Amino acid sequence: MVDEPDAGLLSLNTATVRKQWPLPQIIDGCVRHDIRGISPWRDQVAAAGLKESAQRIRDSGLTVTGYCRGGMFPAIDREARRAAHDDNRRAIDEALTLGAPCLVLVVGGLPQDRDGVIRSKDLAGAREMVRDGIGDLLEYARGAGMPLAIEPLHPMYAADRACVNTMAHANDLCDELGAGLGIAVDVYHVWWDPNLKREIERAAGSTPSRLLAYHICDWLVPTTDLLTDRGMMGDGVIDLKLIRSWMDACDYRGFHEVEIFSANNWWKRDPDEVLAVCRVRHQECS
Amino acid sequence: MVDEPDAGLLSLNTATVRKQWPLPQIIDGCVRHDIRGISPWRDQVAAAGLKESAQRIRDSGLTVTGYCRGGMFPAIDREARRAAHDDNRRAIDEALTLGAPCLVLVVGGLPQDRDGVIRSKDLAGAREMVRDGIGDLLEYARGAGMPLAIEPLHPMYAADRACVNTMAHANDLCDELGAGLGIAVDVYHVWWDPNLKREIERAAGSTPSRLLAYHICDWLVPTTDLLTDRGMMGDGVIDLKLIRSWMDACDYRGFHEVEIFSANNWWKRDPDEVLAVCRVRHQECS
To answer: Of A158, A166, A239, which is closest to B123 when you measure between CB atoms?
Structure first.
């Protein structure tokens, strides 16, 4: 097996304790538990104030490992797509203020109307909207010097969250759209893919490497909810050490970002306990 | 868009009403609703008697469109794999008695112990067990003249039900293992796949065609349970007419088998209503 990971590479995606703590408390919690990376979400940054959050993260000595999130490109009418574009530009500006290394993109699924109701079954068309939307946003992102990281989501989210569901598809988009675009590899979404190793290597073979972020958690059996039943590393069936060994072999030297949505378990626990367990499990199980 | 499907091609996978009716009543229900195909499950056949079921289906003039199911190849010890092999041979014998055109294979996920607990995270190893298990079974299946149909399951079942999760993987196995092996295309499992059209064409390009079965239902948004929240055709987001047009274009002339697991909706309704709705939705929405 591979060696234990460098404990200094642990990062906390703030979704992991977002039900218990607002962002300032999460930042303080990271410091208390010697977690040196953080990846905040837009809603929590907005609630705490953008400049205040950036300052507090800097003062705490934390490294921002990503900003969650932009995307949601498909929409049923042009005006809504334009609004998404404008919002994504603001997300890039915020990511710059926070000193994030990339803006994570959850690209969106089938086109919805303004009430969030899916109004089209045209999956190929949605994928074209995603390609066009990323292409448009890239112009602004390149000018700002902010890399965009496509996060392929599990196929069970193809309809309503992201219609890019494999590393291969994300790599294809990077091939087509060029510089400034990379990939956030989240084991929860891609662990099942028989082509995972090959596509990680493909992403790393580009210059610069497309491997912009690495997210960890675990897949529980049974999984009782499609959205909020992710597991802590070691509690599920993903061979996390194996996948990390592939990232390591591809010279990925970035953080390992824990991102756990868990309505019935980790979101109900004392967040100090959650962070302590994250530290231990990162070392022992990932 | 494509024409309405031939109503005579509708088949009922008996899982769709298995909570309400035993097999003899399902057979009678198909006749009553002029549904001309049926795909029974082993447990219901066992409960009603194999020979009696075969006779009743024949007497009713129904066409068997598949037999559910064999597979579950990975196991933690050799003895359990041997037991699965023996059970799969019996399933082939039963399929012959029933006059089924194929035995559907749900190949199994990560290796479990005898209590059904997953004991390994070696997904690649599980996939090798699947390949070897199908290879062994094929010898018997070829001798018996019973085609085996790999059903790729949605990636959300990779851990516990089937680690063959794409048409491409199923086609690769067919390439490797040769004659007597084909594919059951279930839209629920593969609708999200950006390579679906290409891989249907690849399956059809073999001689004989690998397209042994076509299962329909719909993907609901939201989906509230990973196992038992499938939708009736037209209630979800799958472009069923588009996928059928791909099957049609590949000269698939087999049945369209409705298979709906639905704990909170269709399994709670009057089964005569369910079959009536299946007929209408098959015509209008698939």
So the answer is: A239
